[in-house]
Amino acid sequence: QVQLVESGGGLVQAGGSLRLSCAASGRTFQNYHMGWFRQAPGKEREFVARINWSGGSIYYADSVKGRFTISRDNAKNTVYLQMNSLKPEDTAVYYCAAGERRGSYSYTYDYWGQGTQVTVSS
Predict the structure, then answer these.
(1) What strand order describes the sheet that includes 18-26?
(2) Exposed, middle or buried by CB within 10 Å (0-12, 13-18, 19+), for 86?
(3) Per residue in 36-81, pLDDT tens?
(4) What is the pairing mode between strands 46-51 and 58-60?
(5) How far apart are the two ends of the chain, measured CA to CA in Å?
């Protein structure tokens, strides 16, 4: 089992920045590929970014490319999502996820955090 706890969400004005953190505990963090997803009210959960176990392979959704940066610190068992130039359409609950397979679909991941709310005001 892997337990994931997100933090860093909040209310920010459009154009602002936030950094989300996801702290992992349980099994060896560096064995897992990590992803960030988000879900806005009334919408399905969507992929945001993913990073492989070593940090050498990173992939972003087109909607966040150039604005968001995913990274991980295996020594701290933590994955981050730096979000810059935020837009109102980025408003959602953000979830981190861990999995033994690498992919951009929800079903790829085995473990999920509880989510953290990000609200971007216009």
Answers:
(1) 2-7, 18-26, 78-83, 68-73
(2) buried
(3) 999 999 999 999 999 999 989 999 999 999 999 999 999 999 999 9
(4) antiparallel
(5) 40
